[in-house]
């Protein structure tokens, strides 16, 4: 579950900013009424709410991403073990 906590800690600020950008109204030209872009949303959120403003909904994110991350890593490990047991090896190696 540690991997889930790390993912949520790193991704929740981006989720909060993207949600705020998507939910803001737009003018007749299609420009946002509250934020000019991603960087502006980060700056305004930090100025108005501080660091914790980026972690709204963190619990819900953990319950969604925590199990997903753990299962993804377990499945990846099992697939690698199955491939090794079948004698499959990677032909291309990264340098």
In short:
With 95 residues, the chain is mostly helical.
What does this structure look like?
The chain has 95 residues and is mainly alpha-helical. The protein has one domain. The chain is 65% helix and 0% strand. The chain has 3 helices and no strands. It has helices at residues 2-23, 38-49, 58-85. The protein is elongated and about 60 Å long.
Task: Supply database-style keywords.
single chain, mainly alpha, 95 residues
Secondary structure blueprint with pairings:
Elements: H1 2-23, H2 38-49, H3 58-85
Helix pairs in contact: 1-2, 1-3
Major β-sheet, in short? none
Gap from first CA to last CA: 31 Å
Low-pLDDT residue intervals, each spanning 5 or more residues: none
Shape: elongated
Q: How many individual β-strands?
A: 0
Count of DSSP H/I helices: 3
Percent of residues in helices comes to 55-70%
- Give the topology string: H per helix, E per strand: HHH
Give the rounded overall mean pLDDT. Answer: 88
Strand content: under 5%
Radius of gyration equals 20 Å
The SS-based structural class is mainly alpha
Number of domains: 1
